[in-house]
Amino acid sequence: MNISHIEHIGIAVSDLDEAIAYYRDQLGLKCYAIEEVADQKVKTAFFKVGDTKIELLESTDPEGPVGKFIEKKGPGVHHIAFAVDNVDESLSEAESNGVRLIDKQKRKGAEGLSIGFLHPKSTLGVLTEFCGEE
Ligand code: CMX
User: Fold this and answer.
1) Ligand 1 in reach of 10 Cβ (< 6 A)
2) Fewer CB within 10 Å, N- or C-terminus of the chain?
3) What is the 3-state secondary structure (H, E, C) of 94-126?
4) Nearest 5°: CA angle at 44, between 38 and 50?
5) Is the C-beta atom of 102 inside 6 A of ligand 1?
6) Does residue 128 sit in helix, strand or coil?
7) pLDDT tens digits, the chain, 134 residues: what are they?
8) Alpha-carbon distance 3 to 19, whole Å?
9) Can you tell me whether residue 13 is helix, strand or coil?
10) Which residue's alpha carbon is nearest to atom 36 within ligand 1?
11) What is the largest CA-CA distance in the chain?
């Protein structure tokens, strides 16, 4: 696989408006997009930091992945997403190297990007996402 950079860091928050205010007022970052991703049961807010984005994630359903994460661990860093040339090929390569996948094939995520997740039990406890344009 060909990882070019960290596409985004996902951060689980309890209250999106409160978290946006913190990143804007305390860190001076500009929120450039807010989007609900129904499939993932989250509402997201994006900030650019160089080539990398911060993706704030507020759950829209307590049974969704971020809802369950906050219930168990509280707010905090939720996942790291790497930009790759080809999400499907990167998932296949990880699987053939023995990594457990959450997604066997890419699906659509925020900002219209293709995404696919590796299971945190197989990635030293860090939920890992591949992210690509195609
Ligand atoms: N980071 C590290 N570990 C995590 C985790 C995370 N984000 N989320 C869950 N886990 C751990 C749990 O702590 C738990 O570990 P223990 O068994 O040791 O307690 C284990 O994984 C299972 O967790 P669970 O609460 O029982 O939840 P599920 O198995 O139902 O789901 C997971 C876990 C990772 C498969 C699910 O959250 C998932 O499919 N995530 C990918 C999709 C996603 O996170 N979408 C939101 C972001 C979308 C976006 O970026 O737009």
Assistant:
1) yes
2) C
3) HHHCCCCECCCCCEECHHHCEEEEECHHHCCCC
4) 140
5) yes
6) strand
7) 899 999 999 999 999 999 999 999 999 999 999 999 998 999 999 999 999 999 999 999 999 999 999 999 999 999 999 999 999 999 999 999 999 999 999 999 888 899 999 999 999 999 999 999 97
8) 29
9) strand
10) 65
11) 45
Q: What is the pTM of this model?
A: 0.96
DSSP 15: -
Alpha-carbon span 72 to 24, nearest angstrom: 27
d(CA 101, CA 121): 10
One-character DSSP codes across 18-45: HHHHHHHHTT---EEEEEEEGGGTEEEE
**Listing from the earlier edge strand, what are the strands of the sheet with 42-49?**
31-37, 42-49, 52-59, 3-13, 76-84, 128-132, 114-118, 107-108
Sketch out the chain's domains with CATH numbers: 3-132 (3.10.180.10)
Q: How high is the pLDDT of residue 50?
A: 95
- Would you state the pLDDT for residue 41? 95
Q: 59 near 41, Cβ under 8 Å?
A: yes
Residue 121 CA: nearest ligand 1 atom is 21
